[in-house]
Structure formats: C-alpha cells, structure tokens
Amino acid sequence: MNRQQLVEQIFNKKTFLCVGLDADIKKVPSHLLKEEDPIYSFNKAIIDATADYCVAYKPNLAFYESMGVKGMISFEKTIKYLKSNYPHHFIIADAKRGDIGNTSTMYARTFFEEYDIDSLTVAPYMGDDSVSPFLCYEGKWVILLALTSNKGSHDFQLTCDENGERLFEKVIRKSQEWGNDGNMMYVVGATQGKMFEDIRRVAPTHFLLVPGVGAQGGSLEEVCRYGMIKDCGLLVNSSRGIIYASSDTDFAEAAAAKAKELQEEMAVLLAKS
User: Which end of the chain has the smaller Cβ count within 10 Å, N or C?
Assistant: First the structure.
C-alpha cells in the first residue's frame, strides 16, 4: 500500500485508528479455549467487529512467537484472513527487527515476501545497513523506533550530544538519508504529548505510528494538536483498550464499541485539520 492509498482510506473512513492484535492466550475469553485455534478465533472476531472503524491492524510478533509453532500458525492465518477479507487495511508486523545486513535481508524476505505484509517495525540502533534491506521493496514500509512511550525511553532516546541534538532527533534526521516519507514512518509514543512539535521539526511530512492511546494513558487530542499534518500523517494504535474491553462472550461487541468511540473522536479531529 502506498501513501496515497493509505491517506485515501483515512479520509474515506474518517479514521486513522490502528488496532493492535496483541492476543495473549492467558487473556482471551475462556469460552474460546475450546476452539481448535483460540488465538485465531479471537483475532478473527476482533477484526470483523472493528474493521469499519480502523484503517490498520498491528499484530505484535512476541505474542505469537511465545506460543512456538502454534502461535506462528495463528499469526499466518490472521494475516491471510486480513488479506482475503479486508484487503484495503494496512498491516503492520510489530516485530522490531534490525540486525547486520544479511540478517535484515532475511527478515525482509520473511515479512515482505513470505507473509506479504505492508510494513514492519525496525530498531535503528545498528544503522544504515541494518535498515536498508527493508527499503528495497516497492510499496512496503519501514517503521523506525524513534521516541517511545515506555519509562526506559529516557535512558537513551533523550540523551544529547555536544551540539544539543537528542538521540531520537539524530535517528530521524539520519534515517532520512536512507528512505523517504513514502516508505518510512516513525514510532512516537502517545504519552510524549508536546514533544510531537519537536518530532515535526525534524520529520514534517512523515507518517507517525503512535502507540499508547487508551490503556497507556496517551491523549488523542494532544497527539493531533501537535502531530497531525495536512494529510493526517498519523496512525494511532490502541491494543488492550480495544481487544480486552471485555473478557466475556460479548468481547467482540465491546471491542467494536471502543473502536467506534475512537473513530468518532478521530472524525472530529480530522475535520479540524
């Protein structure tokens, strides 16, 4: 999916919501445990319930890898279901890969050829040759970690060099030598608030993937005030706040209600942009 297609989906559906498919076998409703593949059954129900209110889905690989082969089968089935039934939704593999060139090449082959996913989160710590292999694929996206919402983000990301440039700013600035706003996005946590102004100074036109709205306490209104651009430029992710809105048999309906609530808020914010 290219940028124009993504933007069209956002404005046609009046939403820039991404639903995180962080399916945990210990948290899915107990009645699903009788199913042959509880994780896939859970994901399928969540997708069907929320598809009208979002433009993207983000399965977090750790939740599937934690279950070994069974989990990866659930992941693959989820991707195939999305591509067959909701082909206009943007799919993000949240895997945070990034390694020396030949290893990154294999990761790129896995996600962009084998699974044919739209985008992949990548850790930029190892630099150009760890990121570039992902940028060789037409219509695919790299989503680089930039300024995250976790407590430990302060350990490295906000440290300054002798010129006063913070590490997250250097990552964003330097990485623009490798890719552009048509194949690279940045992860910026919703809890960073006014820091989105600083992000936009170094990445004025790039899309930002914004986790942390909902269960982590990030403010959607604040994210949009400081981070939204003319063609939106935001994908705001909510995982636990949507998919675990209920642990009972009405979990899909509860997820739909939470997603609809966010979509309605997003429609108002888009109209103001």
Answer: C
Distance separating alpha carbons of residues 70 and 83, to the nearest angstrom: 20
Q: The domain 3-272 is classified under which CATH number: 3.40.190.10, 3.20.20.70, 3.30.1380.20, 3.30.70.100?
A: 3.20.20.70
Show which residues are catalytic. Answer: 96
For the chain, 273 residues long, give each residue's pLDDT as a single digit of tens. Answer: 999 999 999 999 999 999 999 999 999 999 999 999 999 999 999 999 999 999 999 999 999 999 999 999 999 999 999 999 999 999 999 999 999 989 999 999 999 999 999 999 999 999 999 999 999 999 999 999 999 988 888 899 989 999 999 999 999 999 999 999 999 999 999 877 788 999 999 999 999 999 987 656 678 999 999 999 999 999 999 999 999 999 999 999 999 999 999 999 999 999 987
Q: Alpha carbon 263 to chain centroid distance?
A: 16
Q: What is the pTM of this model?
A: 0.96
Count of Cβ atoms closer than 10 Å to residue 194 Cβ: 10
- Residue 213 DSSP symbol: B
3-class SS shares of the chain: helix, strand, coil, % to 5:
50, 20, 30
- The b-or-e profile of 25-43 (16+ CB within 10 A means b, else e) is beebbeebeeeebbbbbbb
Residue 52 and residue 118: Cα distance in Å, rounded? 19
φ and ψ of 69, to 5 deg: -60, -40
DSSP string for residues in 220-266: HHHHHHHH-BTTB-EEEEESHHHHTS-SSTTHHHHHHHHHHHHHHHH
